[in-house]
């Protein structure tokens, strides 16, 4: 049985037994290489579920739709490992409880999609720990390497050029599972700290501010870059921040639901390299 | 409509010499919202303050800007004046055009431009200021004294004698600290224990002092007047209530060969022991690292001999939570690790000892009963060489400061040696003799002139053993010649260093320390007893090397600071506290984690039927210190700081 068939029948089972009230998964998209989220509530509809190598979107953000989890019932969600990590962060930040979320785990490697063992966020602890170690030895992204080699001035012009395409549609914010604030700081106009105009300064302010708000929280799922209609490589900013928190504080976001946010907690042996 | 008064102070020549105050005044007069702008030589003077009050009343001002010195200097003065004229004091702001402008710039025109910008910025802020009311917080009239040496005991007694309640915490099994180890004390040569032990007993028996020995500070939270302290009571394995202190267990303990800390390794002690004979409390503890029962599961000789069943091997560490109003830190010092000085042979030659070991040898309660004898063979040394600055004033070994007490105690050692061995010879290698203090120089002269101590100005380069003698090679810089002295015993005046865990402990307390680990005072000259953290005071050698009189004096000073605090029923706190916007708060509790004062609570938001809808952060105004950490952490900008709201800061920045 293919993994898609396996999970379709598992979804049917979960819905017909009443274990979950909804399955959030992937359906066919507008083009063959795109997938669209589907929200299945009836066992008869599970055939709409698709699972293949195009299923890259992190679906955890949909769990925060106001009222979805307030009835204490369970929801099953298709997650790769990044998705499970973001689930852990949402729980650590008190936005949901993992007991309400059943994980249908999968991993994409090249052409192959395999199932991950476990159904609760906590079941993936050792896999996440392994991913943390693996990240340390991962070679940097090609473009990232190019950016690191640039002088600060060159790098600034690079990003200035990239951000000049930004149209302030906030699709990155909409797609990001970590952008769950009831009111985004950019929507606060008393006072208007962040310039909302779509000019160089406003665009820089917005994108850098978002990168800072994601420091130590981003699981590098790539939702932001995929959502960006201007194809700005936003994930590189977040990746750079992740390198920083992992290198300085050995912090890998989403290890478990008890993890403290790296910027609001401290250990006595934290490096103090920023104090001159 | 805002009616702002701007008062430009000349500060004599301090501001007026650089900043064109008339131009500043004129610029402010035409600024929107400003009703009146005036200049004057000294607004902090009586007539100056009167003119501000008059303007408030006559013009009906809604805000006041005093363009003058740093708000640290006179913010309180001017706010008080405003309050006297009926204006809420938080509608008065200081534009600092002295420290941040006239004092630091050489070009008058540019300085004037900058002064205009600074003042305009504050005018924009004060337009958006709100009336605030001070917050009253109670004071817990109970002091915590950390460290049971002479400084801690003195501070505890002074507070207790004035009627204050004290908790005195000592991490060793007995009070006493280093002073209890000393033989005689300079410059009067009275016996250290004879003057120390009565104080120890007094502290232990004082009705206002709760003594916790063998205890350590685990956690300190809260703020001035309202600290929450967790004390770890280390397991003694001896029931303090049941034990009579008879000492049978100490006599019978088969494990006797443990190097005794109190005698600096010159004598052994058993596994169940009191640190010294006059210990307070005079009840033993079991050293579980060396006890045969803890190591092998067998023995229990102490249990068998104890007639009151006081031994309890199942005892666990216990934790005690205390409510404390003020803290005196008197954690003392240690002596530097002498093994750093390979050239002096410490550790290699048993007859090379530290100054503290010499104290034990000279002490009547010491391992030799006060006979100065060589550790190697017990013979009385014929020649003793004292090496001063064995560690101090030597940046290459990490201690560049002077340990302050060594010149005096070395003179005392030479004197004690002369008194006990009339035929002996003593030689002292020194860099300088630093004997500033009442009766101190006379004391060192006495050691040289009456007790025959031979002082050689120079350092020792090498020390080796030859024909049963310790050969000390140094230089006499006054003669410009190398010297070699054959000695029977060598005493190193080792440096005073902070406790090894001092830096760590400074973090626990939330106070600062210097590069070595000595705790920082708030101001070296004018606030030498306070730390930068309100309600925490320093006493004794934990701050810097000190002798006994200095430690005692500082301890009494710290006690007076505590008592001044306890003389008030309530502390008036600035109403600069955080406020949360419940409509936009997402309840992520980042602020709860970030808050160093535990001032943020979780509040339920319910619907009309009482069903929980969501939970949001809520600031407890009694606990909030207005540090603003939560404000910076809140991603959605839901938290704001009264008196420094985002709107006010934004207006001030945009006004520049």
Automatic annotation (TrEMBL), chain A:
<keyword id="KW-0479">Metal-binding</keyword>
<dbReference type="GO" id="GO:0046872">
    <property type="term" value="F:metal ion binding"/>
</dbReference>
<protein>
    <submittedName>
        <fullName>4Fe-4S ferredoxin</fullName>
    </submittedName>
</protein>
<dbReference type="InterPro" id="IPR017896">
    <property type="entry name" value="4Fe4S_Fe-S-bd"/>
</dbReference>
<dbReference type="InterPro" id="IPR009051">
    <property type="entry name" value="Helical_ferredxn"/>
</dbReference>
<keyword id="KW-0408">Iron</keyword>
<keyword id="KW-0411">Iron-sulfur</keyword>
<dbReference type="GO" id="GO:0051536">
    <property type="term" value="F:iron-sulfur cluster binding"/>
</dbReference>
<dbReference type="InterPro" id="IPR017900">
    <property type="entry name" value="4Fe4S_Fe_S_CS"/>
</dbReference>
<dbReference type="Pfam" id="PF13534">
    <property type="entry name" value="Fer4_17"/>
</dbReference>
<feature type="domain" description="4Fe-4S ferredoxin-type">
    <location>
        <begin position="209"/>
        <end position="239"/>
    </location>
</feature>
TrEMBL record, chain B:
<protein>
    <submittedName>
        <fullName>Disulfide reductase</fullName>
    </submittedName>
</protein>
<dbReference type="GO" id="GO:0016491">
    <property type="term" value="F:oxidoreductase activity"/>
</dbReference>
<dbReference type="Pfam" id="PF12831">
    <property type="entry name" value="FAD_oxidored"/>
</dbReference>
<feature type="domain" description="4Fe-4S ferredoxin-type">
    <location>
        <begin position="615"/>
        <end position="644"/>
    </location>
</feature>
<dbReference type="Pfam" id="PF12838">
    <property type="entry name" value="Fer4_7"/>
</dbReference>
<keyword id="KW-0274">FAD</keyword>
<dbReference type="InterPro" id="IPR039650">
    <property type="entry name" value="HdrA-like"/>
</dbReference>
<keyword id="KW-0004">4Fe-4S</keyword>
<dbReference type="GO" id="GO:0046872">
    <property type="term" value="F:metal ion binding"/>
</dbReference>
<feature type="domain" description="4Fe-4S ferredoxin-type">
    <location>
        <begin position="282"/>
        <end position="316"/>
    </location>
</feature>
<dbReference type="InterPro" id="IPR017900">
    <property type="entry name" value="4Fe4S_Fe_S_CS"/>
</dbReference>
<keyword id="KW-0285">Flavoprotein</keyword>
<feature type="domain" description="4Fe-4S ferredoxin-type">
    <location>
        <begin position="575"/>
        <end position="605"/>
    </location>
</feature>
<keyword id="KW-0408">Iron</keyword>
<dbReference type="InterPro" id="IPR036188">
    <property type="entry name" value="FAD/NAD-bd_sf"/>
</dbReference>
<keyword id="KW-0479">Metal-binding</keyword>
<dbReference type="GO" id="GO:0051539">
    <property type="term" value="F:4 iron, 4 sulfur cluster binding"/>
</dbReference>
<comment type="similarity">
    <text>Belongs to the HdrA family.</text>
</comment>
<keyword id="KW-0411">Iron-sulfur</keyword>
<feature type="domain" description="4Fe-4S ferredoxin-type">
    <location>
        <begin position="234"/>
        <end position="263"/>
    </location>
</feature>
<keyword id="KW-0560">Oxidoreductase</keyword>
<dbReference type="InterPro" id="IPR017896">
    <property type="entry name" value="4Fe4S_Fe-S-bd"/>
</dbReference>
């Amino acid at each position: 049985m293919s993994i898609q068939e396996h999970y379709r029948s598992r979804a049917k089972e979960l819905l017909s037994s009443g274990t979950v009230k909804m399955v959030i998964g992937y359906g066919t998209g507008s083009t063959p290489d795109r997938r669209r989220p589907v929200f299945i509530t009836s066992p008869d509809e599970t055939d709409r579920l698709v699972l293949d190598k195009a299923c890259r979107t992190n679906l955890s953000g949909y769990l925060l739709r106001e009222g979805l989890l307030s009835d204490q019932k369970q929801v099953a969600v298709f997650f790769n490992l990044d998705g499970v990590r973001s689930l852990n962060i949402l729980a650590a930040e008190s936005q949901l409880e993992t007991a309400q979320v059943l994980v249908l785990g999968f991993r994409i490697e090249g052409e192959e999609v395999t199932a991950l063992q476990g159904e609760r966020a906590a079941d993936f602890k050792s896999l996440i720990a392994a991913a943390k170690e693996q990240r340390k030895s991962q070679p940097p992204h090609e473009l990232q390497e190019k950016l690191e080699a640039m002088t600060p001035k060159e790098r600034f012009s690079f990003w200035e050029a990239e951000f000049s395409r930004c149209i302030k549609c906030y699709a990155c914010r909409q797609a990001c599972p970590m952008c769950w604030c009831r009111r985004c700081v950019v929507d606060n106009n008393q006072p208007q700290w962040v310039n909302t105009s779509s000019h160089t300064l406003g665009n820089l302010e917005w994108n850098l501010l978002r990168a800072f708000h994601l420091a130590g929280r981003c699981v590098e799922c790539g939702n932001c870059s995929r959502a960006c209609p201007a194809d700005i490589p936003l994930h590189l900013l977040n990746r750079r921040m992740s390198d920083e928190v992992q290198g300085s504080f050995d912090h890998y976001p989403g290890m478990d639901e008890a993890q403290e946010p790296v910027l609001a907690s401290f250990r006595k042996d934290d490096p103090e390299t920023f104090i001159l | 409509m805002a009616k702002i008064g701007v008062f430009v102070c000349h500060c004599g020549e301090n501001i007026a010499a650089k900043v064109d105050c008339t131009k500043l005044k004129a610029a402010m007069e035409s600024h929107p919202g400003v009703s009146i702008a005036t200049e004057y030589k000294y607004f902090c003077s009586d007539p100056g303050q009167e003119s501000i009050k008059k303007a408030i009343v006559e013009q009906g001002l809604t805000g006041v800007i005093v363009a003058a010195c740093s708000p640290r200097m006179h913010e309180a003065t001017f706010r008080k004046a405003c309050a006297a004229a009926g204006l809420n004091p938080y509608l008065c702001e200081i534009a600092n055009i002295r420290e941040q402008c006239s004092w630091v710039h050489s070009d008058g025109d540019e300085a004037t431009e900058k002064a205009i910008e600074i003042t305009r910025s504050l005018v924009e802020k004060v337009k958006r200021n709100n009336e605030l009311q001070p917050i009253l917080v109670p004071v817990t009239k109970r002091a915590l004294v950390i460290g049971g040496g002479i400084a801690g005991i003195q501070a505890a007694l002074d507070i207790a004698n004035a009627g204050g309640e004290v908790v005195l915490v000592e991490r060793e099994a007995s009070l006493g600290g280093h002073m209890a180890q000393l033989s005689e004390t300079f410059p009067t040569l009275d016996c250290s224990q004879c003057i120390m032990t009565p104080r120890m007993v007094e502290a232990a028996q004082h009705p206002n002092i709760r003594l916790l020995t063998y205890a350590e500070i685990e956690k300190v939270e809260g703020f001035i007047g309202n600290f929450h302290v967790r004390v770890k009571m280390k397991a003694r394995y001896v029931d303090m209530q049941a034990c009579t202190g008879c000492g049978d267990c100490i006599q019978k303990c088969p494990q006797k060969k443990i190097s005794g800390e109190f005698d600096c390794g010159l004598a052994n002690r058993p596994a169940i022991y009191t640190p010294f004979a006059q210990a307070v409390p005079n009840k033993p503890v079991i050293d579980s690292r060396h006890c045969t029962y803890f190591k092998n599961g067998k023995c229990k000789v102490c249990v068998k001999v104890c007639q009151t069943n006081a031994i309890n091997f199942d005892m666990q560490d216990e934790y005690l939570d205390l409510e404390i109003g003020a803290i005196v830190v008197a954690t003392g010092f240690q002596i530097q690790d002498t093994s750093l000085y390979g050239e002096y042979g410490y550790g290699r030659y048993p007859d090379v000892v530290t100054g503290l070991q010499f104290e034990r040898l000279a002490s009547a309660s010491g391992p030799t009963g006060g006979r100065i004898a060589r550790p190697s063979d017990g013979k009385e040394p014929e020649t003793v060489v004292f090496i001063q600055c064995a560690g101090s004033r030597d940046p290459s070994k990490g201690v560049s400061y002077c340990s302050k007490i060594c010149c005096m105690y070395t003179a005392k050692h030479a004197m004690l040696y002369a008194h006990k061995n009339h035929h002996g010879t003593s030689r002292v290698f020194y860099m300088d003799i630093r004997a500033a203090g009442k009766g101190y120089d006379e004391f060192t002269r006495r050691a040289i002139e009456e007790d025959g101590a031979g002082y050689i100005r120079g350092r020792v380069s090498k020390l080796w053993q030859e024909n049963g003698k310790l050969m000390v090679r140094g230089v006499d810089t006054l003669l410009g010649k190398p010297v070699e002295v054959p000695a029977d015993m060598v005493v190193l005046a080792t440096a005073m260093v902070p406790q090894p865990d001092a830096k760590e402990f400074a973090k626990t307390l939330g106070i600062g320390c210097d590069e070595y680990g000595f705790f920082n005072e708030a101001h070296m000259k004018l606030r030498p007893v306070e730390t930068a953290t309100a309600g925490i005071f320093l006493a004794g050698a934990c701050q810097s090397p000190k002798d006994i009189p200095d430690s005692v004096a500082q301890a009494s000073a710290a006690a007076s600071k505590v008592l001044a605090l306890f003389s008030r029923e309530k502390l008036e706190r600035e109403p600069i506290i955080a406020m949360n916007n419940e409509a936009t708060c997402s309840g992520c509790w980042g602020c709860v984690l970030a808050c160093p004062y535990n001032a943020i609570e979780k509040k339920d938001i319910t619907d009309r039927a009482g069903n929980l809808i969501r939970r949001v952060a809520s600031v407890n105004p009694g606990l909030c210190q207005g540090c603003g950490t939560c404000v910076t952490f809140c991603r959605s900008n839901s938290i704001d700081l009264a008196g420094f709201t985002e709107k006010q800061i934004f207006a001030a920045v945009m006004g520049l």
